[in-house]
Amino acid sequence: MKNYQIYLAGGMCNLDFEEQKKWRDLIDGDLHIYNNFNLNGKYNLNILKPTDFYNFEKVEYKSQKEVMKFDLNLVRNSDLIIVNFNDPKSIGTAMELFCANELSIPIIGLNEEQYELHPWLIECCTRICDTYDELIEHIEKFYLY
Prior knowledge:
By secondary structure, the chain is of the alpha/beta class. Helix content is 46%, strand content 19%. The chain has five helices and five strands, in the order βαβαβαβαβα. Strands 2-1-3-4-5 form a five-stranded parallel beta sheet, sandwiched between helices. The protein is globular and about 40 Å long. The two termini are 14 Å apart.
């Protein structure tokens, strides 16, 4: 069984913890369901959610450098990045996308609110989807199937 690692990037600092987690948990569940039922467990999916490691409301880290290094290491070791542009001015998200782009890791974006994105964020992405359903269908068809 092939290991497949997906990192879920997106705004955190300007959102409460539930907003940070909700979309990540939804994607995690939907991709695991697809893998298990449509692909008969073809992949050992490892969905990396920064919210599983750090919670900005309950600080257990000693520095932002610790968080940055940890998250960027997860990005570097991923096969795919999914980014939610729920906070299009997030500096951390921009850094994660730049890092992935430099390593030629595909980046699939979600911009449901149709925020105006900086051109460099757009250029980092392989594709930007307008709806959640489009995002999931695209990943299933082009990256998991």
